[in-house]
Amino acid sequence: MIIATIVKDVAKDVIKVVDYPFSHLVQAIRLLDTVLKDEPTLKVAVIGLLKQIEILTMDGAIAVSADGLNLPADVATVAAGATLLKYVHDVFLPTIQKDFKDVKSDLTQSATT
Fold first, then answer.
1. Residues near 46 by Cβ (< 8 Å), separated by ≥ 6?
2. Which of 60, 76, 87, 111 is most buried, judging by how many CB atoms fall within 10 Å of its CB?
3. CB-based contacts of 56: which residues, under 8 Å, 6+ apart?
4. 75-84, pLDDT tens digit by residue?
């Protein structure tokens, strides 16, 4: 009984940690909407990243809260994690790199004029 109580308490704490970014996602999107108005491609990349993280945290919360082995929830969590990593690799990082190069180029041109 003591082990079951400890596991439940730990699971509740893990869910609180996982839930934090999800519960603040709307605020983060509003902030990014205000800050990134001049950089629409960066804004789209960051919002896409946050949406992928939201999916991962929801699937992770389901997997963590499951009693014992829950293969469908575990598979969904792994798939959401893989999708997040693919998005970061294929979309987010290239967008950030391109925007950084554009800003660096603009700064270099401003310094020479």
1. 32, 36, 92
2. 60
3. 77, 80, 81, 83, 84
4. 777 888 888 8
